[in-house]
Amino acid sequence: MNVYWIWLSEIKGIGPVMGKKLLEKFNVPENIFKASYHELISVGGVGDKIAKTIVESKDETMSRADFIIKKCIINGIKILNINDELYPIEVKKLKDSPNLLYYLGNIRKNPLGVGIVGSRRCTDYGKRIAKEAAEFLCANNITVISGMAKGIDGYSHTACINLGGYTMAFLGCGVDVVYPKEHKKLMEKIIEIGAVVSEYPPGTEPDAKNFPKRNRLISAFSKKLLVIEASRSSGSLITAEFAKKYGRQVFAAPDNIFSKESIGSNELILNGSKIYISPRQLLDKSIKKIENYEQNNQVQATNSFKIDSIEKLILNSIHKEPKTIDELKTIINNTRVDILEKLSLMELQGKIKIFRGKVQTL
Questions:
Q1: Do the beta carbons of residue 50 and residue 43 sit within 8 Å?
Q2: Is residue 297's pLDDT more than 60?
Q3: Residue environment code for 82-96, b if the CB has 16+ CB neighbours within 10 A, otherwise e
Q4: Side-chain half-sphere of 238: how many Cα atoms within 13 Å?
Q5: 104: which strand partners?
C-alpha cells in the first residue's frame, strides 16, 4: 500500500540509504511498520535511536502519511516506489536514490534520457544550443530531462514539447506547486506529454535546500548531461558533480572565457568534462541515429501553446511594425511579467521572431 511508502519516507532521520537497508530486511514498508523494536535494531546500521524513532512516531507519522495520500488522490498525483516496474533499474542501483517519488503526467518505460541544464539568464547563444539539443533528442525519441527553471531548462522543455517529444521535469517543490509562477503553462504541457516529478510531498514550497537534492535526480535519470552557460556558483555544477558520481557522461558547451556566466561550464571542460560541439554526441550507442539530421530535420513545431492576455498584447503591438524590447516593456507596463523570458518562450513556440533587436511577427 502506498500509504506505508509515504509513511517510511516521512520518518525523521530515515533517508534513502537507511530506507533501503530496512527494505532489504523487511521487503515492503508495511513490514517495517509492523516490526518490533528488537526486530528493527537487528538491522545493520539501525541503532537504538532510529529504532525508537520508528516505533514511537508510528501514529504521528502515519497520520501525516494519511493526509498526504488524501492530497494525492484529490490532485491526481501518482506515486512511484522503488519496487515499481516503472522505476528505472539504473536509478534504483544508486545508494541515495529516493525510495518514493511523486509525479503528475506519465512515466514511460525506460524513461532515462539526456539532462540539459544551465543558466537562468542565458544568452541567445545558450538558448540556441539548448533548443538544437532538445530538438535533436526529440527527433531521436530520447527523453529530455531538466528542472523547469527559467532559462536553459525552460527552453529545453519547450523545444521538446513543440516537436511532440517526451520530457521530464524534476522539481525542488511539490508537484502541485508551480515554480517559477511564469511556467504554469509550461508545466501543464509537460504533464500533458511527459511528467513532472519530485521526492517532496504535495504542498511543499520551493526552498533553497531542496534544489541540490532535485539536481541529483536530474543526474540520476540522465544517461548523459549537457551543461550550458553555467556560472561558478551555478546549481548546474552540482548537477554535474552528481552526474560524475553516478558514472554519467558530462558535456559542457564552451563559451567566452571572459563571461562570468560561463566560468563554471568552461571549468568543467578544463577539469575533464567533454567539450560539446554537436548534438550527435548526446546519442547513446544503443539508439539508432536519424541520418543526416542537420540537413533533413523536417519535423515541424506543433505550436500547441495557447495565447494568454500578455501575449495577445505583444502580438497586437507588433502587428503593423516591429518593436524593440524597451518599447514593449513600456506598452506592457506590468512589473510581474519578465518580458525577456516571455519573448524568448514566444519565439521558441513559433509565435514571434526576434531579429536585430526587434520583435516581429513571423
A1: no
A2: no
A3: beeeebbebbeebee
A4: 15
A5: 196
**Mean pLDDT calculated for residue range 24-46:** 94
Provide the residue count of the chain: 362
Q: What is the largest CA-CA distance in the chain?
A: 78
153 close to 178: Cβ distance less than 8 angstroms: no
pLDDT digits (tens, 9 = 90+) for 84-127: 999 999 999 999 999 999 999 999 999 999 999 999 989 999 99
Give CA–CA dist 69/309, Å, rounded: 36
Distances (CA, A) of 276 to 75, 200, 357: 40, 33, 28
Which residue type, as a one-letter code, is found at position 7?
W
Q: In what order do the strands lie in the sheet with 113-118?
A: 78-81, 100-105, 195-198, 167-170, 144-146, 113-118, 222-228, 249-252, 274-275
Kindly give the residue spans of alpha helices, DSSP state H, lying in 36-183: 37-41, 48-56, 58-75, 89-92, 124-139, 152-162
CB-based contacts of 170: which residues, under 8 Å, 6+ apart? 145, 146, 147, 148, 196, 197, 198, 214, 217, 218, 221
How high is the pLDDT of residue 305? 60
Give the DSSP H or E segment for 241. Answer: helix 235-245
Query: Do the beta carbons of residue 229 and residue 245 sit within 8 Å?
Result: no
Average pLDDT, the chain: 89
| C-alpha cell recorded at residue 13 | 532521520
Gap between the Cα atoms of 150 and 132, Å rounded: 17
Instruction: With cut-offs at 50, 70 and 90, classify the pLDDT of residue 319.
Output: confident
| DSSP sequence for 291-352 | TTHHHH--PPP---PPP-HHHHHHHHHTSSS-EEHHHHHHHH--TTS-HHHHHHHHHHTTS-
C-alpha to C-alpha distance for 325 and 25, rounded to whole angstroms: 61
**Domains in the chain, start-ordered, CATH in brackets?**
2-75 (1.10.150.20), 113-296 (3.40.50.450), 309-360 (1.10.10)
Q: Which three cell numbers stand for residue 102?
A: 511523486
Give 321's contacts (C-beta < 8 A, 6+ positions apart): none
Would you say 171 and 191 are in contact if contact means Cβ atoms under 8 Å apart?
no
